[in-house]
Amino acid sequence: DASISEIREFVKRIPGLKQSYQSLQQHINLAELIKKTTDSKSFRDLKDAENLVLTGETIFEQLEERIGFQDPLLGVLRQFCLQSVAAGGIKTKNYTHLSRELVQTYGFEMMLALSNLEKAGLLSRRDTLWNEASGFGFARKSFRLLNEDVDPRNPRDCAYVSRSHAAGYAPLSVRIVESAIKPRGWSAVQEGLRQLPGPSGEISQTTNKNSAGDDPAAPAAASKLDNFGSEERKVMLVYYLGGVTFMEIAALRHVSRQADCPYDIIVATTKIINGDTLLKSCFDKEVLRFLKL
For the chain, what are the domain ranges? Predict the structure, then answer.
């Protein structure tokens, strides 16, 4: 028999319980929608093909089969580009054959599309088979991009965000951020950074205490910044020029939540992108219209 005070206390908790129930229902509905997609054959085939490419295998037969079945063009081109980037190019014989199949299946406008992808560096030819000297092959080892030992019950590595039935994949940009967080910074991964396209550098910024007195707004601004991150965990801003994917954002959030990470990580970017939007950005309006993308 509950007392009057206990009944009153329970009644006070009803709104919170109702909100928790609604949140649980939303979570279940979202999980069901996601599971419906991840259980589909097309998704599993796509995931298997991507895992093969990441581990250094080729997927030319799968690509030829997808073209033969006239699968959605963007999905086919994404795998074609992924194979090229991961292997440091595609053997000329295979490249010529797949390009011809694409043109015959999807139309002569594919010639313009393939040319644009080549100019963007997403497609290239090579006269040798896959070898570990490719930039991605080197980065995969140097930055431990694949992790087969992710514990789903106690996930500490950011590769957890993409883990399925195979090894988890840690986005390269996030591994670079993780290296910057460590005491030695990028000096510990200089060899790996040299294998990546584009220059890299570290610049240490210091505040000029004398200039703070010249600007009346400086003390107030400094106070706001001091209050933003605690003394134990400072704030790190990771800025992506060109775009960032949701996987990279999820991985950075996972890194920031770890107890050994001394930073609260904030992600800023010029755009949220995915594989489809990245490829579309390589085509002009006429190509997009002709290919119905």
Answer: 41-131, 135-202+222-276
Measured CA to CA, the distance from residue 157 to residue 150 in angstroms comes to 7
CA distance 49 to 233: 40
State the pTM of this model: 0.80
In eight-state DSSP terms, residue 149 is -
Reading the chain (293 residues) residue by residue, the pLDDT tens digits are 557 677 677 777 777 778 888 888 898 899 899 899 888 988 888 888 988 998 889 999 999 999 999 999 999 999 999 999 999 899 999 999 999 999 999 999 999 999 999 999 999 998 765 444 578 888 999 999 999 888 888 889 999 998 765 678 999 999 999 999 988 888 888 888 888 888 888 887 776 655 545 555 545 444 445 545 556 789 999 999 999 999 999 999 999 999 889 999 999 999 999 999 999 999 988 888 888 88
Question: Would you state the torsion angle of the CA atoms of residues 242, 246, 249, 253, taken in this order, to the nearest 10 degrees?
Answer: 180
Instruction: Provide CATH code, domain 135-202+222-276.
Output: 3.40.50.1910
CATH homologous superfamily for 41-131?
Answer: Sec1/Munc18 (SM) protein, domain 3b (1.25.40.850)
